[in-house]
Amino acid sequence: MSQNLLELDHVTKRYGVGGLFSHQSITAVNDVSFSLASDTPEIFAIVGESGSGKSTMAKMILGNEVPDGGRLVFDGTDIGTIRTRAQREAFMTRVQPVFQNPFEAFNPLTHVDTYLYATARRFTGADTRIQQEAKADEALQRVGLSLAELKGRFSHELSGGQLQRVAVARALIPSPKLIVADEPVSMVDASLRMSIVNLFRSLRDELKVSIIYITHDLATAYYISDRVIIMQKGVVIESGGARAVLDNPTHPYSIALKNAVLPPDPKAAAAAIRQRRALVEGA
Amino acid sequence: MMNATLAPERPATTAPVDVLTIKDLKAYYINEHFGVRREVRAVDGIDLTVRRNEVYGIAGESSSGKTSLIKTLAGAIRPPMRVVEGSVKFDFGGKHIDVYGEPAKMQAARWQHLSYIMQGSMSVLNPVRRIKHAFNNFAYRHMGLDATAFRRRVESHLDRLGLDASVLEAFPHQLSGGMRQRVTIALATVCEPEFIIADEPTTALDVLVQQDVLGLIKEVQGRLGSSVVFVTHDMSVHAAITDRLAIMYAGRLAEEGPTQALFDRPQHPYTAHLIASLPRIGDVSTRKSLAGKPPSLANPPSGCRFHPRCPIAIERCSKEVPQMLPSATGGRVACFRAGEVSMQ
Ligand SMILES: Nc1ncnc2c1ncn2[C@@H]1O[C@H](COP(=O)(O)OP(=O)(O)OP(=O)(O)O)[C@@H](O)[C@H]1O
Ligand SMILES: Nc1ncnc2c1ncn2[C@@H]1O[C@H](COP(=O)(O)OP(=O)(O)OP(=O)(O)O)[C@@H](O)[C@H]1O
Ligand code: SF4
Ligand SMILES: [Mg+2]
Ligand SMILES: [Mg+2]
Questions:
Q1: From CA A219, how far away is CA B285, in angstroms rounded?
Q2: Complex ipTM value
Q3: Which residue, judged by its Cα, is nearest atom 22 of ligand 2?
């Protein structure tokens, strides 16, 4: 029998909105279930509307948010039961995040390389600076950077794409089993984007790492993912094999989403924007 | 340091009006570490003009200097960045601002004429204040509306971006990444400035919302004939919204021209590469990344900075710097073999 690496079982998350005394709430994630098998690593894409609950789901998988309903189980352990520091460290060695906005993920007063050393120390037992630097450099090289370029630099001294790649590199250091990557390539150009998604693919194929790939970029989702779910307003509206779903979406929102991908031609793209405007204004 | 010569008086014609003129601009990050000077030449000799009533795009790979360039033109630089040469001048209908000649005046003029959406700017929202305070602080006093009319205007503007009025009562952390990004776009556009600078403003948006945002920017721009400088690495976004497009490579311009012409007949091999590498859904072939690494701006390649990665480089390319010259398609290009690369 194969155990699941990750299992989401009817997971729901609500947030209160409006002032302190308001009883309104929104359901950020509404009854979501899926699982990733242990024996077949895969790239699992989550795409969908802005505000549809993708990051909230990522936060729950990382144990940073607690669901209001349902369970999340990682490798046999209910993520909600992880309490002690030691349990948390053990979990984080195996599950690593890449957060959505690198400009928020890095403290502006800390050198970015410090994050990499800290990760190496906490999760790989590298206790000398030389070992930590070696780990950091190895990871940075994989995303087309090097420690020499980054040493002693603050986040505001790096470009958006550089910072985003540092975030990806950091997550590689512990050699995790699962990477939860929230928009990991939104700030890099097409060429680098391909090299990072190709890196994900080789992590899956060579190191058996599973990757949850949250993205607005349907082209790379199609290109590297095994399965995809499409979300709207907290609900999974369509799911299946990535190629099958994206080739022939059936839910109206999925169809609209696919059709809204801008064509790479100025006349056609400008026309698409005008049409959308006419549609929204007419509605 | 500053170029003090005045531009010749422009004869009155129907030609497009230049709102922004950048001349031979060089801006470096200059650090001293233990007496060793390290210069990152992020903006290294750029000339360009942005006209009234146009969307001017800037494209280029990660760390090519896009953000550095627009920080410089927005007068938003701080140490260790320094403008070492050149000038940045605005002409808002006869009101002249020489950004590095008279910085104080620029500060005053900034919020009146110009708004700047910084890269990753969703992180600049004050975490402990509700979103409505940001609107009150940034936009209220520029709009000359009473409080109720102002609130109504803000709400309808947010609605255009797919945001409910309730976001005004929210704290930044209660909004998703893309919702925050739209809030900063709303903040920068609600008072309809004459000049908008936007750095990667749609990276966190799904493609439907992205279309709405681009549509709104285009509309705000068109209504008053404003100018927009739009920076993104995403060539499809440039295709959708820009009138003219500049391609940046390693701190310099490689090519500039009408967007359609650049897409149809790129003259520079790097432009051709960018257009050929546009991802498409349904394509599973392993697309080739550009060979080699982006060049270091602390120690850029000699001659044409693209030569180590250029598929058609010749000997001359590593020795001489190609100048930006008029191109066959009505723009400008810096390449000794302009127009010779065909798109594969
Ligand atoms: N801490 C919070 N308090 C209240 N509401 C929240 C909180 N975090 C998220 N939300 C709400 O939950 C919903 C889902 O947000 P989430 O960040 O998960 O969206 P997302 O799918 O990641 O969107 P994007 O693509 O824009 O990043 C949004 O309506 C958001 O306002
Ligand atoms: N404060 C700084 N000190 C030193 N170097 C810097 C500083 N800020 C940026 N740089 C460097 O300048 C170069 C250009 O960065 P810039 O942010 O302009 O690139 P970009 O084209 O906007 O890239 P991206 O698309 O990744 O955002 C990069 O190599 C970056 O590391
Ligand atoms: S000048 Fe030479 S190296 Fe540079 S782009 Fe043209 S052909 Fe290539
Ligand atoms: Mg998100
Ligand atoms: Mg940038």
A1: 12
A2: 0.92
A3: B67
